[in-house]
Design brief:
The protein has 170 residues and is an alpha/beta fold. The protein is built from five helices and four strands, in the order βαβαβαβαα. The longest helix has 24 residues. The C terminus is likely disordered.
Amino acid sequence: MVDHRPYNVLFLCVANSARSIMAEAIINRLGAGSFRGFSAGRHPSGAIEPMAFNLLTRLNYDVTGLRSKSWEEFATKDAPALDFVFTVCDVTAKEECPSWPGQPLSAHWPVPDPVKAVGDDAQRGLAFADTYRMLNNRISIFTALPVRDLDKVTLQARIDLIGQDSGRKD
C-alpha cells in the first residue's frame, strides 16, 4: 500500500443519498490524515436524504461538499486514485461496477437502507441512527487496521471480515 498520502476510500450505494453519504462523512472524521472518503451511486438521487443530513449535522460532522453523485466520476483518469472501494448495500454489490483505476481493494459491507424504513419520524430516525451506528462501528475497525503493515492478501481478508458482522438486522 502507498504510504505517502492518505488512503482514498470510495463508498458505493445505489442512490448515494444516505448510507454511502454517512460513510463518507464518518471516515473523513475518523480517518483524518490517514484516510480520505468519497461516496457515489449507480443511480444517484441527486440529493442527500434529509434525515441523513440532519443526523450528521446533529453529530457535528462537516457536511460541506457532501452531494449525491454518480460512480462514473471515479472511473475517469482525472479521478482520485482509489485504494479501497466498499459497497454498503446489497443491490450495488450485485451490479457490475466500473473498472477502477489502480485496482483498489474492495469489500461488501451491507447495511439496511434507512430510507426504506416505515413509520413516523421517530421510527424512521431510529433506522437512520442504527445505520449510522453500524457504519461507524465498521469504519472504526477499518481505520484502526495497521494498513501499512499488512500484505494485500491479509488486508483483503480483514476488510472482508468487517462486512460479515453478525449484528446486522437485515
